[in-house]
Amino acid sequence: FRAFPQPLRAVLGWHGRGLDRELRQIARRRPVVTRVAMPPVSWPETFAKDGFHPNAAAYRALAAHFAAAL
Prior knowledge:
It is built from 2 helices and no strands.
């Protein structure tokens, strides 16, 4: 969430981690659910010019990661 100022950036990060914890619990309880962790695509060169959305290279890395996991 680099595009957001503090403390909003921290709050969104906390919320995202909470959602991820919930998803992990759901995946543990339901064998048909697959949770795939996000790959590390948060370095500056993977963001679009708006500083928030992924750029084309990041989307390619995400697609390859998720395709391999599924």
